[in-house]
Amino acid sequence: MAKHIVEYLYYFKNSNDSDVKTIFLENLKEFEYGSQLNCSDTNGNLLYFNYNIIKYDTSLHVTFTYDTIKKMTLAEVRTFQNLLKEINIKASKSEISSSTLFDSISLFFYKRLLPLLHKYEWSLRKLIYLLAPTYFSKDWVKYTISAEAISQFKKKAKGNFDSNNLLQMMDLYDFEEYLFGENYIKVIGEEEDVIKYKEFGIENLITLLVNEEFNISKPYSLWEEIFNQYIDIDLSEIQNDMLLIRNGRNIVGHNKEISSETYENLSKVLKKYIKKLDLAFNKILDGNVDRNLIKESTDIFNDYMSEYFKSSDHLFSLSKPAIDPKTFESINKLRSTISKDQNKEE
Predict the structure, then answer these.
(1) What is the CATH number of the domain that holds 73?
(2) What is the pLDDT of residues 313-342, one digit of tens each?
(3) N or C: which end of the chain has fewer CB within 10 A?
(4) Are 148 and 256 members of one domain?
(5) How many other C-beta atoms lie within 10 A of the C-beta of residue 270?
(6) Cα-flanking dihedrals φ and ψ of residue 312, to 5°?
(7) Assessment of whether the complete model's pTM goes beyond 0.85
(8) Considering its fold, how many domains does the chain have in total?
């Protein structure tokens, strides 16, 4: 047997001498069937709901319940939620507001969403762990996560910081920033390097460029550089979807009301990315793609950057040195120059 309960507190929006219970009951007449309420589901089947009204000062405490002897279906829950929505719309038109006191319908959706959210978040971590250390042959954490972010993770950990499981300290917003934040620029002089320009600071960057001969690219993200090779989806689409997932996770994590429409959209998007991430893991782990793909993509990117620097529309340059792109992660003259400049300031 399954049962769902939703409780509301109803009250007039503004001071009113009318009896709130009388007006509220008038709004229920359209749905009344004896001592119950009824509503048709999408298949035309009539469902019956119970309700109880308690006068509370100048307000009403109303409890709606739906019972079934079998397992509750999504169609039934959706119908119950739609009925309550219609009742509250009518109440609002009668100048009656409502506040939700309890909602077990949302729990029905949480139980279905939690396994999907669990799989999705672990899959994001898995994708980063599999690719980042391979792409950055040295310290991938240093290259991809800012010192400020790590400092924040340590504060959250409260003495339990585990550098080997760093990604478990990241929330969905952190993952979005990690994957899509345009935090990197490619710098080319006698040699080339990539720096995290937001962390380095724009003032230091300008000072460096004034004193040296360098060309720099527009900012770009790790998603553009690495991860989109394994997940075939438009950048704007995945960013919008990740925002939807993050908002949905916040609803679940903070026990807020969730509509059937939000549940269905969120469930659909989560399943889509779980499937795409699983396909990506097959490519990475099962050898369905060349293991040298990452290195090849770096060479392709460098060729692209060479052409990119030739266009003055995409380039900030203080000089026009010969361009000789090398590997993405080279530790070159630029980094040494930065280090020397910072030591001088100290």
Answers:
(1) 3.30.70.1130
(2) 444 433 333 333 333 333 344 444 444 444
(3) C
(4) yes
(5) 23
(6) -65, -15
(7) no
(8) 2
